[in-house]
Write a structure and sequence with these properties.
single chain; mainly beta; six-stranded antiparallel sheet; five-stranded antiparallel sheet; about 30% strand
Length: about 260
């Protein structure tokens, strides 16, 4: 077997030396291959961690109704992959239930009992906060603006709290667009544009030097041709800021020069 393990990103590949998803057999090396067990989030927001300990780094979150493909269990913890954004990690088994049926609605409001983009079961009561699956927003920036003031928190990705790439992801999801979880993935969306041509709705990413941090960069959305909207630890929340100020700070902190991407 040709081992392609080194060509896969471990953060988004459900494989370890001892165990891998059956779908990866023939692509990666592992002692054992097993089928995944599809589970569904029952908590409004549940944390996904890098290691089995709940005290380990939070790397993602699962929203209510999203699927998590479980491959391993250890006590009350499960290891698997969030199907919506592909992140692999550990989470609390109590935050999941067996998958059944398909959602027919999504949470469209940013101030609701459940977070924006949570998925709603057909049996759940109707609510003005819900929208049918397929009924999406048209402007990610409008969505992001509704999240102004939401606290910044590393590893978070909801309308309750979010990090930079989580904000961009949730704004894209609300518009029915692909929303990768990590900054370096977002830097590959759409097509490149020059800084001088950047406009409202373009994605801006400052990539972190490889291996220096567990996260891969800083993401923002252009609010107009001179300002960004982003979730930033510097301000502690989702804020608007001049592109020049955000750029200067990122470069001072060692990030690569910004790349600008325009969605189709």
């Amino acid at each position: 077997m040709t081992d392609l393990s080194s060509s896969f990103d471990a953060r988004t590949t459900l494989a370890r030396p001892d165990l891998a998803a059956q779908a990866l057999e023939g692509l990666v090396r592992a002692d054992t291959f097993r089928p995944v067990e599809p589970m569904r989030g029952v908590a409004a927001v549940a944390d996904i961690h890098a290691a089995a300990s709940p005290d380990s780094e939070r790397i993602d979150q699962l929203l209510k109704g999203e699927l998590f493909d479980v491959l391993d269990r250890r006590g009350g913890r499960v290891w698997g992959q969030a199907r919506r954004d592909g992140i692999v990690g550990w989470m609390d088994a109590a935050a999941l239930e067996s998958h059944r049926g398909l959602p027919d609605r999504r949470v469209a409001a940013t101030r609701a009992d459940l977070p924006l983009n949570a998925l709603i079961d057909p049996a759940a009561p109707a609510s003005p906060d819900h929208a049918p699956i397929g009924d999406f927003e048209s402007d990610p920036v409008v969505v992001a603006e509704r999240l102004l003031g939401v606290p910044h928190s590393l590893g978070a990705r909801s309308s309750v709290a979010t990090d930079c790439s989580g904000l961009v992801q949730q704004a894209l999801y609300a518009c029915g667009l692909p929303g990768p979880r990590q900054a370096h993935e977002q830097a590959g969306l759409g097509r490149p544009v020059a800084r001088s041509a950047a406009q409202r709705g373009d994605i801006v990413v400052w990539l972190a030097p490889p291996g220096t941090r567990s996260w891969t960069g800083h993401s923002a959305l252009m609010l107009d041709d001179t300002r960004v909207i982003h979730a930033t630890g510097h301000h502690g929340a989702v804020v608007t800021e001049s592109l020049a100020d955000a750029d200067s700070r990122c470069l001072t902190e060692g990030f690569a020069p910004a790349v600008f991407r325009r969605l189709a």
